[in-house]
Amino acid sequence: MKKFEIDGNKIRINLHLKLWKDKKMIFSIACRKKSTIRRSIEANTYTKAYLRVSYLKDFYNSGYYNNKKDVLSALSAFTEKPLLDFVK
Q: In sequence order, what are the residues at sequence separation of 6 or more whose Cβ sits closer than 8 angstroms to the Cβ of residue 10?
């Protein structure tokens, strides 16, 4: 679980993943563990994915992706240390 402090208060990033296959949502998860999201991306077969990483209220990164490589790259980019340090 990722925990960060702002003015002495700990914040947590929230991760949301939705997967579609043939225009039908087949999987949806919201959690705080990057490893859970990564396993879900790798384990499922899908044609479209939506990933959202929320840092604070109304401060997030998100996007739609068409393959596993792009989703995993976005997950890494959205949770890289310099960006998380910026949120502090």
A: 3, 4
